[in-house]
Amino acid sequence: MTTEPTPPRQPRPAPRTTTRDPAEVARRLTDWLDARLPGAQVSGVSVPESNGMSSDTLLFDIEHPEPPLRRCALRLAADPDAYTVFPVYDMERQYRTMRLVAEHTDVPVPRVLWLERDPAPLGAPFFVMERVAGRVPPDVMPYTYEGNWLYEASDTERARLEDATVGVLAHLHDQVPAAAAGFLALPGEGSALRRHVASQRAYYAWVVEGLPRSPLVESAFAKLGELWPRDEGAPVLSWGDARIGNVVYDGFEPAAVLDWEMAALAPREVDIGWTVFLHRFFQDLAVGFGQPGLPDFLRRDRIEARYARLTGHQPRDMDFYILYAALRHAVVMLRVAYRQVHFGEATVPEAPEGPDTLILHHDRLAAMVQGDFG
Question: Which residues fall in a compositionally biased region of kind Pro residues (predicted)?
Fold first, then answer.
């Protein structure tokens, strides 16, 4: 007698990423732009395929004789009525961060054009930046799956992209004076790392308010206490969402570093751990669906060694920081899942599984809590 192979796990339906009407945004954006560039017209408004579930991104062109056609992108704070992923969207903070990085580093960031603090024109604050041509490693389906440009690249080309991306982190951390980034200090008492973790605890409390709590997330917070670094090091400007899916590449070189809404003052290893873990997350997804993925890409040992060569700083306590990255991502995943529940796209599993199974990487996070970082 033969048995049928177990089919690969099927993902939950893709959650909606925006509740806004691009045509309505285009009309209101044209009205707003007329005060800055009289006679300008907005055309080609679209939502990129990579649009996340946090701030909305809209792509558009400006048609105006002086200056010539501009290709732009707009970052619009999330609609507060759309069950947002984060409790606060500080567009001015993102705008200031991008200007700071452009002023002090050779890290490529899009040129920011305008900041609008008033929510009246589009329903929320926003900023406009120039759009940079290039390609982005996809999240859906992930770049670790067959059939996309990064997967089909050669090992040499991926190694080039990896080295250049680690170089972005090295230059960001080394070149921005911490004093100039003081506005990114998180509130609270104690060191930058203590404040960073405290902010994540507050975020988790917000996510589960009135909803089932996650025993796995809470055990991961407890594990952080056991692994806490003895020497946290001096804080730097931390990108916060340091992953290749937030970089536009020209060939295999970074052309624009995007998504600065999680930037803060923090130890260097916060970004390094996030880069390592987010690739591991996508690699685990590929393996879980029966694909080989990219197991030799963005490996922890290579990232640490490359960063040390570029900066003279040897990353330390990386078990702590990779666990922290997995924990932070778990809280985001839980919020995204509860957002799907809110919109009737998913349900909370009954006990004994409970809300922990809404976290796509719950097996990996559980293993880390038990001390397995392999």
Answer: 1-14
**pLDDT tens-digit map of 150-209:** 999 999 999 999 999 999 999 999 999 999 999 999 999 999 999 999 999 999 999 999
Question: Which residue pairs from 5-9 have beta carbons closer than 8 angstroms and sit at least 24 positions apart in sequence?
Answer: 8/288, 8/289, 8/290, 9/288, 9/289
CB neighbours (10 Å) of residue 142? 22
Which one of 34, 56, 231, 241 is the catalytic residue? 241
Which of helix, strand or coil describes residue 83?
coil
For residue 112, the number of C-alpha atoms closer than 13 Å in the C-beta half-sphere is 24
Whether residue 241 lies in the annotated active site: yes
* CA 219, 85, 109, 244 torsion-angle sign: positive
Residue-wise pLDDT tens digits, 47-104: 876 545 568 888 999 887 776 668 999 999 988 778 999 999 999 999 999 999 999 9
Question: Tens digits of per-residue pLDDT, 12-52?
Answer: 444 444 556 777 888 898 889 888 888 888 888 888 765 45
> Is residue 221 within 8 Å of residue 331, measured between CB atoms?
no
Report if pTM > 0.90.
yes
Q: What does the buried/exposed string (b/e) look like for 235-255 if buried means 16 or more CB atoms within 10 Å of the residue's CB?
A: bbbbbbbbbbbbbbbeebebb
Q: Take residue 25 and report the two structure tokens written for it.
A: 């945004």
The matching CATH number, chosen from 3.30.70.120, 3.30.200.20, 3.30.700.20, 3.30.450.20, for 22-130 is: 3.30.200.20
Task: Indicate the class that CATH gives domain 155-370.
Answer: alpha beta
Residue 231: count of CB within 10 angstroms of its CB? 7
